[in-house]
Amino acid sequence: MNRLQTINKLRFKQAKLFRYRLPFKIPMFFKGIKLSAREGVILQVENNSGAFNFAEIAPLPGFSRETLQQATAQIITLLNNPQLNSRSAMQLYPSVEFALDCILHNIPLSGLFKTAESIPLLQGDNQTVLKQYCQLNKPNRVKLKIARQAVTKDIALFSALSALNSHLLIRCDANQSWNFAQAALFFTKINTQSIDYIEEPTASLSDNIKLAERYQVQLALDETLQQKQFQYQHHPCFKALILKPTLIGSFERLNYFIKTAKKFHLSVSISSSFESPLGLRQLAFLASQWSKEMNISCGLDTLKFFESAVLNENSDDNLATTSDKKILLSQQVKRLECLWISN
Fold first, then answer.
1. Does domain 3-108+329-341 have CATH number 3.40.50.2300?
2. In what order do the strands lie in the sheet with 238-243?
3. Average pLDDT of each block of 10 consecutive residues along the chain (343 residues)?
């Protein structure tokens, strides 16, 4: 059964779309695109029994091929035309596909975040990153955003972090932003023993494998997994799969990668694309389910980069939830600007 035929199984009394805007504390850069706020829409579906399900649609500029406007138009078209039954009639955007699967599988808002290991994310200028790390009491594993400044500055930052904790293992994320020479310079100047793995230093998978072999480092696949037609072929330098569900799309595709990781004994990290608290709760729930099959780590601590605003957790930094918090979040959604209501 194809995706659009599956959508026809969705029976609802009413659907609504709400717009949100979450300002960042300081502007963030995503592959050269400067954002002062994260924008998305929340889909609320009321089923025939009167219960509500929620899902988030939030393409990430610089990473998603679709814009928020395109994704919003697509979900409205789908919900207005329940008789669509041919996948060729409409190629679903990953952000829309993921949201529909969250609705169809009744993914709750009560993310069980503490069942999976959380790896803190460090990003910003060098002094900010070093301050963040010390405020976290110098954990032994962190994720570090690199390739957003001169390579020499990244080398200095990596070395400074390593000097603060001799047991530190750093998961580097370059977002395919270097060329071969820049990546080679980085590996030449740092202590590669302090790298847990690096996520896609260049945009070329074959170049990344060459770099990993030459400098004896291990790789994690991230952006490559977001390619619709990518089929995993194992290589000894691969250590981890970074799953960003809202960028990958369907649960079917996500489950394929979970099974692949299990087969080849790869690490898996469920990673945020700077979703709202609602989206993060659902990612945390999925991580908790997958952790029943294998060890899962999470990179979902992105709320710290936002100002306190709409869809505020009003709680501590973890995503462990209670029914009261679930009710509170669903009430907050209904106070957002309503973009669209089904007939």
1. no
2. 117-118, 296-299, 267-271, 238-243, 219-221, 195-199, 169-173, 141-145, 121-122
3. 53 90 92 93 90 95 96 94 55 96 90 62 93 95 95 98 97 96 98 97 98 98 95 97 97 97 96 94 92 89 82 50 60 90 89
